[in-house]
Inverse folding.
Protein backbone atom coordinates (compact mmCIF):
# COMPACT_ATOMS: atom_id res chain seq x y z
CA UNK A 1 0.00 0.00 0.00
CA UNK A 2 1.23 3.48 -0.79
CA UNK A 3 1.80 5.86 2.10
CA UNK A 4 -0.95 8.32 1.11
CA UNK A 5 -3.28 6.96 3.81
CA UNK A 6 -0.67 7.79 6.47
CA UNK A 7 -1.14 11.53 5.99
CA UNK A 8 -4.12 13.85 6.27
CA UNK A 9 -6.02 14.25 3.00
CA UNK A 10 -7.21 17.71 1.96
CA UNK A 11 -8.44 17.35 -1.63
CA UNK A 12 -11.74 19.29 -1.93
CA UNK A 13 -14.07 18.57 -4.85
CA UNK A 14 -17.54 19.82 -5.85
CA UNK A 15 -18.60 16.21 -6.46
CA UNK A 16 -16.94 12.94 -5.48
CA UNK A 17 -15.45 10.88 -8.29
CA UNK A 18 -17.99 8.17 -9.16
CA UNK A 19 -17.22 4.46 -9.16
CA UNK A 20 -19.47 3.08 -11.92
CA UNK A 21 -21.60 0.00 -11.32
CA UNK A 22 -19.59 -1.94 -13.89
CA UNK A 23 -16.38 -1.23 -11.98
CA UNK A 24 -17.92 -2.18 -8.64
CA UNK A 25 -19.26 -5.39 -10.16
CA UNK A 26 -15.85 -6.25 -11.60
CA UNK A 27 -14.22 -5.76 -8.19
CA UNK A 28 -16.89 -7.92 -6.55
CA UNK A 29 -16.46 -10.81 -8.99
CA UNK A 30 -12.64 -10.63 -9.05
CA UNK A 31 -10.09 -11.88 -6.57
CA UNK A 32 -10.67 -10.46 -3.10
CA UNK A 33 -7.57 -10.96 -1.01
CA UNK A 34 -5.42 -8.48 0.89
CA UNK A 35 -3.33 -7.46 -2.12
CA UNK A 36 -6.45 -6.88 -4.21
CA UNK A 37 -7.90 -4.64 -1.52
CA UNK A 38 -4.67 -2.65 -1.41
CA UNK A 39 -4.74 -2.18 -5.18
CA UNK A 40 -8.35 -0.99 -5.20
CA UNK A 41 -7.88 1.14 -2.09
CA UNK A 42 -4.95 2.94 -3.71
CA UNK A 43 -6.66 3.26 -7.09
CA UNK A 44 -10.07 4.70 -6.20
CA UNK A 45 -9.87 8.51 -6.10
CA UNK A 46 -13.11 8.77 -4.14
CA UNK A 47 -11.37 7.43 -1.02
CA UNK A 48 -9.11 10.51 -0.79
CA UNK A 49 -11.65 13.23 -1.64
CA UNK A 50 -13.87 15.57 0.40
CA UNK A 51 -17.01 16.93 -1.22
CA UNK A 52 -18.01 20.45 -0.17
CA UNK A 53 -21.58 21.51 -0.86
CA UNK A 54 -24.52 23.55 0.34
CA UNK A 55 -24.21 27.14 1.50
CA UNK A 56 -23.32 28.50 4.92
CA UNK A 57 -25.98 30.62 6.56
CA UNK A 58 -23.41 32.69 8.45
CA UNK A 59 -19.62 33.06 8.39
CA UNK A 60 -19.16 32.07 12.05
CA UNK A 61 -21.04 31.24 15.23
CA UNK A 62 -21.59 33.39 18.28
CA UNK A 63 -21.10 31.09 21.22
CA UNK A 64 -22.13 29.05 22.90
CA UNK A 65 -22.66 26.59 20.05
CA UNK A 66 -24.82 23.48 20.04
CA UNK A 67 -23.14 20.45 18.47
CA UNK A 68 -24.96 17.23 17.59
CA UNK A 69 -23.44 13.85 16.78
CA UNK A 70 -25.48 11.04 15.26
CA UNK A 71 -24.81 7.69 13.66
CA UNK A 72 -27.81 7.90 11.35
CA UNK A 73 -27.71 4.25 10.13
CA UNK A 74 -27.66 4.90 6.36
CA UNK A 75 -29.76 8.08 6.80
CA UNK A 76 -32.60 5.84 5.75
CA UNK A 77 -35.36 7.68 7.68
CA UNK A 78 -34.63 11.08 6.20
CA UNK A 79 -37.72 13.06 7.26
CA UNK A 80 -37.57 11.91 10.89
CA UNK A 81 -33.84 12.59 11.14
CA UNK A 82 -34.18 16.04 9.57
CA UNK A 83 -36.97 16.89 12.02
CA UNK A 84 -34.90 15.72 15.00
CA UNK A 85 -31.86 17.78 13.94
CA UNK A 86 -33.98 20.88 13.42
CA UNK A 87 -35.76 20.46 16.76
CA UNK A 88 -32.41 20.10 18.54
CA UNK A 89 -31.32 23.58 17.53
CA UNK A 90 -27.91 22.22 16.56
CA UNK A 91 -25.51 24.65 14.91
CA UNK A 92 -23.43 21.78 13.54
CA UNK A 93 -24.52 18.18 12.99
CA UNK A 94 -21.74 15.59 12.90
CA UNK A 95 -22.96 12.47 11.12
CA UNK A 96 -21.69 9.02 10.24
CA UNK A 97 -23.10 6.08 8.27
CA UNK A 98 -24.49 8.29 5.49
CA UNK A 99 -25.42 6.61 2.19
CA UNK A 100 -25.22 7.93 -1.33
CA UNK A 101 -26.90 5.97 -4.09
CA UNK A 102 -27.64 2.82 -2.08
CA UNK A 103 -30.76 0.80 -2.82
CA UNK A 104 -31.34 0.24 0.91
CA UNK A 105 -31.86 4.00 1.43
CA UNK A 106 -33.77 4.89 -1.73
CA UNK A 107 -30.83 5.20 -4.14
CA UNK A 108 -30.57 8.95 -3.56
CA UNK A 109 -27.94 11.40 -2.31
CA UNK A 110 -28.88 11.34 1.37
CA UNK A 111 -26.67 14.21 2.55
CA UNK A 112 -27.89 16.32 -0.39
CA UNK A 113 -31.47 15.41 0.51
CA UNK A 114 -30.87 16.38 4.14
CA UNK A 115 -29.27 19.68 3.15
CA UNK A 116 -32.29 20.48 0.99
CA UNK A 117 -34.50 20.08 4.06
CA UNK A 118 -32.49 21.91 6.72
CA UNK A 119 -30.05 24.12 4.78
CA UNK A 120 -26.46 24.94 5.61
CA UNK A 121 -23.02 23.98 4.38
CA UNK A 122 -22.04 20.32 3.98
CA UNK A 123 -18.94 18.16 3.79
CA UNK A 124 -19.09 14.51 2.76
CA UNK A 125 -16.40 11.81 2.50
CA UNK A 126 -16.52 8.08 1.83
CA UNK A 127 -15.70 5.30 4.25
CA UNK A 128 -16.66 2.43 2.00
CA UNK A 129 -17.35 1.82 -1.65
CA UNK A 130 -20.06 -0.78 -1.26
CA UNK A 131 -19.79 -3.78 -3.60
CA UNK A 132 -23.10 -5.33 -2.60
CA UNK A 133 -26.51 -4.28 -1.32
CA UNK A 134 -25.48 -4.12 2.34
CA UNK A 135 -25.70 -6.52 5.24
CA UNK A 136 -27.51 -9.86 5.06
CA UNK A 137 -30.91 -8.39 5.89
CA UNK A 138 -30.53 -5.52 3.43
CA UNK A 139 -29.31 -7.83 0.66
CA UNK A 140 -32.37 -10.00 1.16
CA UNK A 141 -34.79 -7.06 1.23
CA UNK A 142 -33.33 -5.46 -1.91
CA UNK A 143 -32.52 -8.58 -3.91
CA UNK A 144 -32.55 -7.86 -7.65
CA UNK A 145 -31.89 -4.13 -7.20
CA UNK A 146 -28.66 -2.23 -7.93
CA UNK A 147 -26.89 0.57 -6.11
CA UNK A 148 -26.69 3.77 -8.15
CA UNK A 149 -23.49 5.07 -6.51
CA UNK A 150 -22.56 2.52 -3.86
CA UNK A 151 -21.10 5.01 -1.37
CA UNK A 152 -21.25 5.08 2.43
CA UNK A 153 -19.52 7.71 4.53
CA UNK A 154 -19.47 10.59 6.99
CA UNK A 155 -20.74 14.15 6.83
CA UNK A 156 -20.79 17.51 8.54
CA UNK A 157 -23.69 19.91 8.06
CA UNK A 158 -23.93 23.28 9.75
CA UNK A 159 -25.03 26.87 9.74
CA UNK A 160 -21.55 28.40 9.68
CA UNK A 161 -18.79 28.12 7.10
CA UNK A 162 -16.47 25.12 7.21
CA UNK A 163 -12.81 25.90 6.53
CA UNK A 164 -9.71 23.75 6.08
CA UNK A 165 -11.55 20.42 5.69
CA UNK A 166 -9.52 17.25 6.16
CA UNK A 167 -9.94 13.50 5.90
CA UNK A 168 -8.12 10.80 7.86
CA UNK A 169 -8.26 7.16 6.77
CA UNK A 170 -8.46 5.61 10.24
CA UNK A 171 -8.61 1.99 9.05
CA UNK A 172 -6.96 0.81 5.83
CA UNK A 173 -6.81 -2.88 6.77
CA UNK A 174 -9.57 -3.99 4.40
CA UNK A 175 -11.15 -6.58 6.70
CA UNK A 176 -14.56 -6.15 5.02
CA UNK A 177 -13.27 -6.73 1.50
CA UNK A 178 -13.31 -10.52 1.25
CA UNK A 179 -16.92 -10.85 2.40
CA UNK A 180 -16.10 -12.58 5.70
CA UNK A 181 -18.32 -10.00 7.44
CA UNK A 182 -21.04 -10.69 4.79
CA UNK A 183 -20.89 -7.14 3.41
CA UNK A 184 -18.09 -6.81 0.82
CA UNK A 185 -16.61 -3.30 0.68
CA UNK A 186 -13.51 -1.36 -0.32
CA UNK A 187 -12.30 1.10 2.30
CA UNK A 188 -12.42 1.50 6.05
CA UNK A 189 -13.49 3.83 8.82
CA UNK A 190 -12.56 7.52 8.65
CA UNK A 191 -12.42 10.82 10.49
CA UNK A 192 -13.77 13.86 8.64
CA UNK A 193 -13.01 17.28 10.07
CA UNK A 194 -13.02 21.02 9.47
CA UNK A 195 -12.78 24.28 11.35
CA UNK A 196 -15.68 26.46 12.44
CA UNK A 197 -15.24 29.86 14.07
CA UNK A 198 -17.02 30.12 17.43
CA UNK A 199 -16.72 33.46 19.23
CA UNK A 200 -13.87 34.32 16.81
CA UNK A 201 -11.94 31.18 17.86
CA UNK A 202 -11.14 28.44 15.35
CA UNK A 203 -12.59 25.17 16.63
CA UNK A 204 -11.87 21.90 14.82
CA UNK A 205 -14.93 19.67 14.57
CA UNK A 206 -14.42 16.00 13.66
CA UNK A 207 -16.75 13.13 12.76
CA UNK A 208 -15.18 9.87 13.95
CA UNK A 209 -16.11 6.27 13.28
CA UNK A 210 -14.05 3.42 14.73
CA UNK A 211 -14.34 -0.17 13.60
CA UNK A 212 -17.07 -2.27 15.18
CA UNK A 213 -15.63 -5.69 14.35
CA UNK A 214 -12.15 -5.32 15.88
CA UNK A 215 -11.09 -5.60 19.51
CA UNK A 216 -10.50 -2.82 22.07
CA UNK A 217 -6.71 -2.92 21.65
CA UNK A 218 -6.98 -2.24 17.93
CA UNK A 219 -9.52 0.54 18.53
CA UNK A 220 -7.03 2.07 20.96
CA UNK A 221 -4.29 1.89 18.33
CA UNK A 222 -6.61 3.49 15.75
CA UNK A 223 -7.41 6.26 18.23
CA UNK A 224 -3.71 6.88 18.84
CA UNK A 225 -2.94 7.16 15.13
CA UNK A 226 -5.98 9.33 14.41
CA UNK A 227 -5.30 11.81 17.22
CA UNK A 228 -1.65 12.05 16.18
CA UNK A 229 -2.77 12.95 12.64
CA UNK A 230 -5.26 15.52 13.97
CA UNK A 231 -2.32 17.13 15.76
CA UNK A 232 -0.71 17.77 12.36
CA UNK A 233 -3.58 20.13 11.47
CA UNK A 234 -4.72 21.37 14.91
CA UNK A 235 -1.78 21.02 17.28
CA UNK A 236 -2.89 21.94 20.80
CA UNK A 237 -5.95 23.75 19.47
CA UNK A 238 -9.62 23.49 20.50
CA UNK A 239 -11.17 20.30 19.11
CA UNK A 240 -14.45 18.45 19.50
CA UNK A 241 -14.70 14.86 18.35
CA UNK A 242 -18.16 13.40 17.87
CA UNK A 243 -18.35 9.79 16.92
CA UNK A 244 -19.42 6.22 17.07
CA UNK A 245 -16.36 4.82 18.83
CA UNK A 246 -17.90 1.34 19.01
CA UNK A 247 -16.91 0.92 22.65
CA UNK A 248 -18.42 -2.56 22.93
CA UNK A 249 -15.59 -3.65 25.31
CA UNK A 250 -14.83 -6.80 23.30
CA UNK A 251 -14.08 -8.08 19.83
CA UNK A 252 -16.62 -9.48 17.39
CA UNK A 253 -15.67 -13.09 18.03
CA UNK A 254 -16.12 -12.80 21.78
CA UNK A 255 -19.49 -11.09 21.40
CA UNK A 256 -20.99 -13.29 18.68
CA UNK A 257 -19.38 -16.72 18.47
CA UNK A 258 -20.63 -17.83 21.91
CA UNK A 259 -23.58 -15.57 22.62
CA UNK A 260 -24.52 -17.36 25.83
CA UNK A 261 -21.03 -16.91 27.28
CA UNK A 262 -21.04 -13.23 26.36
CA UNK A 263 -24.41 -12.64 28.02
CA UNK A 264 -23.19 -14.48 31.12
CA UNK A 265 -20.15 -12.23 31.24
CA UNK A 266 -22.36 -9.14 30.98
CA UNK A 267 -24.48 -10.45 33.84
CA UNK A 268 -21.34 -10.70 35.98
CA UNK A 269 -20.17 -7.22 34.92
CA UNK A 270 -23.44 -5.23 34.66
CA UNK A 271 -21.68 -1.87 34.23
CA UNK A 272 -19.59 -3.04 31.30
CA UNK A 273 -21.69 -1.71 28.41
CA UNK A 274 -22.82 1.52 30.06
CA UNK A 275 -19.39 2.38 31.55
CA UNK A 276 -16.92 0.90 29.03
CA UNK A 277 -13.90 3.03 29.98
CA UNK A 278 -12.01 0.32 31.95
CA UNK A 279 -12.19 -2.08 28.99
CA UNK A 280 -11.43 0.34 26.15
CA UNK A 281 -7.85 1.73 25.90
CA UNK A 282 -8.99 4.56 23.62
CA UNK A 283 -10.07 6.59 26.66
CA UNK A 284 -6.54 6.59 28.04
CA UNK A 285 -5.23 7.56 24.62
CA UNK A 286 -7.65 10.49 24.48
CA UNK A 287 -6.61 11.67 27.93
CA UNK A 288 -2.95 11.58 26.91
CA UNK A 289 -3.73 13.97 24.04
CA UNK A 290 -5.56 16.33 26.42
CA UNK A 291 -9.16 15.37 25.63
CA UNK A 292 -11.98 15.19 28.18
CA UNK A 293 -15.19 13.17 27.91
CA UNK A 294 -16.73 13.71 31.34
CA UNK A 295 -18.40 17.10 30.90
CA UNK A 296 -19.67 16.49 27.37
CA UNK A 297 -21.47 13.14 27.75
CA UNK A 298 -24.42 11.83 29.74
CA UNK A 299 -22.87 9.41 32.20
CA UNK A 300 -23.83 5.75 32.08
CA UNK A 301 -26.68 5.94 29.54
CA UNK A 302 -26.50 3.60 26.51
CA UNK A 303 -26.71 5.17 23.06
CA UNK A 304 -27.96 2.21 21.02
CA UNK A 305 -31.61 2.27 19.96
CA UNK A 306 -33.62 -0.90 19.32
CA UNK A 307 -37.31 -1.73 19.13
CA UNK A 308 -38.87 -1.74 22.59
CA UNK A 309 -39.29 -5.53 22.59
CA UNK A 310 -35.75 -6.23 21.35
CA UNK A 311 -33.93 -8.26 24.05
CA UNK A 312 -30.40 -7.27 23.03
CA UNK A 313 -28.41 -5.39 25.69
CA UNK A 314 -27.76 -1.75 24.75
CA UNK A 315 -24.26 -0.31 24.84
CA UNK A 316 -22.83 3.19 25.13
CA UNK A 317 -21.01 3.37 21.79
CA UNK A 318 -21.26 7.09 20.94
CA UNK A 319 -19.21 9.86 22.56
CA UNK A 320 -18.00 13.42 22.45
CA UNK A 321 -14.40 14.25 23.34
CA UNK A 322 -13.33 17.87 23.77
CA UNK A 323 -10.11 19.81 24.20
CA UNK A 324 -9.76 23.54 24.84
CA UNK A 325 -13.52 23.89 25.17
CA UNK A 326 -16.03 24.38 27.97
CA UNK A 327 -18.80 21.82 27.56
CA UNK A 328 -22.16 21.76 29.30
CA UNK A 329 -25.70 20.40 29.13
CA UNK A 330 -25.04 17.08 27.39
CA UNK A 331 -28.16 15.31 26.17
CA UNK A 332 -29.13 12.06 24.51
CA UNK A 333 -31.93 12.55 22.01
CA UNK A 334 -34.03 9.44 21.29
CA UNK A 335 -33.90 8.28 17.67
CA UNK A 336 -37.64 7.79 17.33
CA UNK A 337 -40.00 8.39 14.43
CA UNK A 338 -43.50 9.78 14.83
CA UNK A 339 -44.89 6.21 14.83
CA UNK A 340 -42.59 5.21 17.69
CA UNK A 341 -40.21 3.04 15.67
CA UNK A 342 -36.47 3.82 15.60
CA UNK A 343 -35.16 6.33 13.05
CA UNK A 344 -31.66 4.90 13.60
CA UNK A 345 -30.06 2.17 15.66
CA UNK A 346 -28.20 4.91 17.57
CA UNK A 347 -29.60 7.80 19.58
CA UNK A 348 -28.24 11.29 18.89
CA UNK A 349 -25.89 13.17 21.22
CA UNK A 350 -26.10 16.92 21.82
CA UNK A 351 -23.77 19.21 23.76
CA UNK A 352 -23.24 22.94 24.18
CA UNK A 353 -19.67 24.24 23.85
CA UNK A 354 -17.69 27.46 23.90
CA UNK A 355 -13.94 28.08 23.65
CA UNK A 356 -12.23 28.00 27.02
CA UNK A 357 -9.97 30.91 26.00
CA UNK A 358 -11.03 34.01 24.05
CA UNK A 359 -9.52 34.84 20.68
CA UNK A 360 -6.17 36.55 21.04
Amino acid sequence: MSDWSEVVQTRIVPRLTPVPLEERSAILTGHRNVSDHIANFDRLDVLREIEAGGMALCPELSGPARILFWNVERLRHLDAIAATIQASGADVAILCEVDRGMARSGNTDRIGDLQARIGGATLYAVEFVELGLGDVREARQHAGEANRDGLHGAALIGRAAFTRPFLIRVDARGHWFDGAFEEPRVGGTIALGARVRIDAVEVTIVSVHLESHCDPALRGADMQRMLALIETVAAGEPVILGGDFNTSTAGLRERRDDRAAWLARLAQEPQRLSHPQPWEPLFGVAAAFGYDWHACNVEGVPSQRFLDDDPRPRAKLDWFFTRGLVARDPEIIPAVQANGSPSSDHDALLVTIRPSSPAS
